[in-house]
Every structure is written in structure tokens, then in C-alpha cells.
Amino acid sequence: MLRIGIVGLPNVGKSTLFNALTAAKVPAENYPFCTVDPNVGVVAVPDPRLLRIWEVTKPKKMVPTTVEFVDIAGLVKGASRGEGLGNQFLGHIREVDAIAHVVRCFEDPDVAHVEQTLDPVRDHDVVTAELALADLATVERRLDKEQRAARSGDREAAEDVALLERVVAALDSGGGARDAIRSPEDRKALRQLGLLTVKPILYAANVDEQTLARGTGPAVEALERAAAAHHEEAEVVVFSGKFEAELAELPEGDRAEFLAAAGVAESGLDRLVHAGYHLLGLATFFTVGDNECRAWTFHRGWTAPECAGEVHTDMQRGFIRSETIHWETYVAAGGYKGAREHGLLRSEGREYLVQDGDILLFRFSV
Known about the structure:
With 366 residues, this protein is α/β, with parallel strands linked by helices. Helices cover 44% and strands 19% of the residues. The protein has helices at residues 14-22, 48-57, 86-93, 120-151, 155-172, 184-192, 209-214, 218-230, 241-248, 255-262, 268-280, 304-311, 313-317, 327-333, 336-341, and strands spanning 2-7, 39-44, 61-63, 66-71, 98-104, 201-206, 236-239, 282-288, 292-299, 319-326, 346-348, 358-364.
């Protein structure tokens, strides 16, 4: 399951966003550190394709894929040295797959700002710096250990020293540990250290409802420039915490009209989840049976046996082939029966690279 950690300064809208995403009732009072422990919520990934597939044969259950959101209390300047609630929360960030950095891009005299004034670039820089400083402390401790081992003739330690020195240089220059990665082996080694600046990051710009309808504004544009300077492929998702809170209170049937009236096509949940999938190179395949149709998350570039392993390890171990059809073709054919009658099912072997939207029926023997 994809795990996204929601981070940012206090009072930027993290818990408000979390409440709207998960329909949880986390406190969102107007003061710092109202979230003392990380709150975890699991939400279904919005995917209209799954409903279309279910409507063809109407199995007993329809099971979407899910994303886990972790609401992590506000970081402040000095968190890497223990200020505020410090390393307690930096530790929680280490456990997620990706980071959603919420940045305040709205003026509201009734909601106190921990830095007193609105400045999304400064706020971006504060949190980014704290993550980097936390990583620097981790890397320098490890570097000292590996340098001692390298001096004794340990060749593997010498290779580790070269990587860690590149990481220190990247962090000292204002970048992240990701900038030091040159190979999959580098990425694996740094992942084992639990470094924060290796994790993919996207930005959630919390705006007022007028800016939400326009899709951008001066504060959002300033954040986009700051994010792009730090991450070449940075993605900024615009949302309104106030709007999302109101949307979450509505019955499901009324939400489309509410979105249309606000001039937006998707909720903040949809945009945030889709951005997370894009950021991590994720996609969705489907399985359909008499009892259920289900969506599954996989990494783009995975083969059919690897996807089979997501369903059950026995399927990957004893994989023979997969009967494959794109979801649109499946729906147009009226299900497996029509697809077989018209010769639309493909038999794919071990080397097949699964595509987003594939429906797979795995054949295996153990």
C-alpha cells in the first residue's frame, strides 16, 4: 500500500486536509502541535474504471486499491535539533513512501501563522532545510563509521564512503540526498539509511476558494518556482482545505455539483492521489471474478509475474501465463464471455510488461 506522509509547518492546513481525505475527526484547532501523534487514515483510490468494470457482470464485491495517509505534526525551524516536537516526528516521516509537503498560500487573520506572515517560499525553505539537516546528522554518523572501516582495508566500506561523501556535498549545497544517486545500488544503500531527502516529494498548496477556482495565484506561483529550483520534477497540487472540509460533509451524490459550482473538476483527494501515483511511477491493473472485481497497484515496468505476486505469492512462484485484456475492450465486449467469443483475450507470458488499465487472469501451478 502506498503511504504518503503529510508534513509542513504548524497551522498550514495539514490536519484539515487529512480530515477531508479520510473523513476522520482529527483536531484542527488554531494553535501549533494540535496533532501530537501521527494520525493514519486509509482511503480508497478514486478510479471510475473500476465501477465500469463492476457494472458489466456485477460480482458480489468491488474492491478499490487504497492509499494510506499519515498526518504528521508540524515541523518548526530547529526540528532537526529537537525544537518543537522535533525528531519524534522526523522519525515518523522516515516510514512513508512519499512526502506531501503542505504549504500555506492563503491569507487569514483568524488563523495564526507560526512565522507571523504569509511567505510560501520561506515556509518551503524551512521544512526543506530541516529535512536536510536531519539527513546530514544521520549521514555524518554513518560516514565516520565507514571511514574507520575503510582505513582498515574494507573495500566495501570505501565504496560506501564515496557515496556518503557525495551525499554530504549535496546536502551542504542546499540539495537533497537524491542528488547524489548515480545507480540503483546507490538508491538501495541510501534507502536503508532511512534518509528523508531521498523520498519523492510533492507539494500541496493550500489556497482560498477564489484561488482554487482560478487554479493559481501569486503565492502558488512563488511556491512552484521554489519547488522547481529544489526538485527538477516537482509537482504542486492546488487545494483548499476549507473547500475540502465542506465537500467531505456532503452526501456522495451531491459532490459533483459542488465541485462544478466551484469551477474545479476533481477534489483535492483525487488530485493528490493522482499526483502521488505519477510521482512514484505507479499504475493500476484489475482482476475480475465471480465474487469480486478488484483494483491493484503496481510499478510501471513490472512484468506479469511480478503483478501476479501482488495478488498472491503462489501465483508469482507458479506463474504460467496471464489472460490479458484492456479494461475498455472488456467493457465493450460485455465481459469475459464476449471477449472469448470474439478472440479478444491475449495470452501473455513471463516477459509481458503490464499496462495501466489491464485486466489480468493469472494461470499458475504450484
